[in-house]
Amino acid sequence: MSNINYPDHVAVPCRASTEPLNLNNNMNSKALNLDQVVNRAEVPTLKFDGETMRRIFGTADLWPSWVADMDFQAAPEIQEALSKRLAHGVFGYEATLNELPNAVVSWFQRRYDWSFEADHIITTPRTLNSLATLISLFSSEGDGVIVQPPVFYDFKLILRAGKRRLVKNALKLEQGQYQMDFAGLESVTAKAENTLLILCNPHNPIGRVWSKEDLARLSEICVRNKVFVIADEIHSDIYFQHKYTPLASVSEAAALNTATCISPVKSFNLSGVANSMIVIKDEEKRQYCKDWYNRMQISKNNVFTNAAMLAAYTKGEAWLEQVTEYLRGNLKTLRAFLLQNTSLIKLIEPEGGFLVWLDFRELSFDAKQLESFLVIEAKMATNPGHWFGREGAGFARINIACPRSVLEAALLQLGQAYSNSLNESGNKNGA
Predict the structure, then answer these.
(1) Cα–Cα distance measured from residue 225 to residue 259, given in angstroms and rounded to the nearest whole number
(2) How far apart, in whole angstroms, are the C-alpha atoms of residue 385 and residue 362?
(3) What are the residues facing 194 on neighbouring strands?
């Protein structure tokens, strides 16, 4: 795809020039080869699993872009830590690592000016477990839980399983960017039966990295109306414009009214090995949550998880910065291709993360036609927009965390399908 021009005027810097690049003592590691194509089908991999893809999409002969992990190898420092732990050869019960929570505290304090104590952290098996547990503990069956669609589809599944009511406060798409509907938020939070709100920050699937002002306004509304906030912030470390702001950092009131879910799984591509964490400042709520995890015996350490997470937070920042830069390049490639080759497919410009929201509405497809276009014509396994709520109809989510050559090949498929669709439409109109 050497014929694509990449206009410099649309490139977006990752950090403001006034921000010091405050990195850890491992930032001099050598350049990564992120162009390397790793055969992920050599190991059991959900994204590339043929049986799963055939069940969901009807075929496995697709570009797998439907699972939110990266196709890049983990940081060399993480691989080294895992190899060293494996070489020890004894994998019995492991003592709690004080270094790990301290490293997490240091990471968020240094990068995002969010201060909390190590004992505010509760370790959990995964983020979906954190969400399900928090919803169960801090609401009752029949309560309303507010979400802001289009939003990660598993929120709905968790609420349904827990017999909670899904209460929508849909985002508004204005001039190509999604905004929170604060008037709507005032209305739904004022109802006593709505007791929780799930915030997605950065927002999956649209890529918004919510501003400090937006978060402060959301928090003030929720605190005033006694709505507790569960903040899913696991996509936080990859951003292209302004940096991520933790909701719990905007004020003391916000900190006391928030349970924040964090994890290195997205930032460091550790979904198959790392744990999740919940940060709760309110002492009573934190102890209530800790007691539940202890009663359920969901508190044991995994020796490889500990090694991987500690390496990520203490030695992985160089890798993260290089991956972020590479993703910026992939975004630039995608942006230029759409502008030059598929002008009716619009990019909803992401501010962070490696998931990208595309607008296909100008092609005038219904839901089934769009799925057929993407799967049959473009040979892409993506996430149809309606999975994220009816507000996502006409959109689709793709994953750009892959070698650029793989992304370029997928875009050529998309471009060919687009041309065929326009030609077919023209022939019908002329018949």
Answers:
(1) 17
(2) 14
(3) 144
Domain that holds residue 183: 89-315
Report the C-alpha gap between 313 and 69 in whole angstroms: 18
**Strand intervals (E) in 98-221:** 121-124, 144-147, 165-168, 172-174, 177-179, 194-200
Is 81 among the domain residues? no
Last residue of a domain, one of 269, 300, 315: 315
Nearest 5°: the CA angle 131, 132, 133 is 90
Does residue 389 share a domain with residue 327? yes
**What's the sign of the alpha-carbon dihedral 411, 413, 416, 418?**
negative
Rounded CA separation 369/376 (Å): 10
**Calpha distance 121→394 (Å, rounded):** 39
Task: Enter the tokens of residue 103.
Answer: 């490293």
Give CA separation, 96 vs 123, 226, 264, 304, in Å: 11, 35, 18, 13
CATH of the domain at 133: 3.40.640.10
Same domain, 115 and 260: yes
Looking at residue 94, its pLDDT comes to: 87
Q: Which two tokens stand for residue 386?
A: 């309606």
Answer yes or no: do 37 and 128 share one domain: no
The Cβ of residue 177 has, within 10 Å, a number of other Cβ atoms equal to: 14
- Output the six-digit token pair for 117: 């104590």
301 and 324 housed in the same domain: no
Contact criterion met (CB below 8 Å) for 345 and 357 = no
Mean of the pLDDT values across residues 274-278? 95
Q: How many CB atoms lie within 10 A of CB 3?
A: 6
The Cβ of residue 33 has, within 10 Å, a number of other Cβ atoms equal to 9
Contact assessment for residue 372 and residue 127, using Cβ atoms and an 8 Å cutoff: no
Last residue of a domain, one of 254, 282, 315: 315
Which of 224, 146, 155 is closest to 180 using CA atoms?
146
CA distance 237 to 318: 12
Same domain, 298 and 345: no
End-to-end CA distance of the chain: 35
Is residue 161 located within the same domain as residue 252?
A: yes
Find the range with the poorest average confidence among 9-18, 118-127, 361-370, 384-393: 9-18
Measure the CA dihedral 107/108/112/114, to 10°: -150
For residue 23, pLDDT over 70 is answered with: no
Q: How many CA atoms lie within 13 A of 96 on its CB side?
A: 10
Q: Report the distance separating Cα 76 and Cα 81, nearest Å.
A: 9
Residues 175 and 98 in one domain: yes
Q: Is it the case that residue 198 has pLDDT exceeding 70?
A: yes
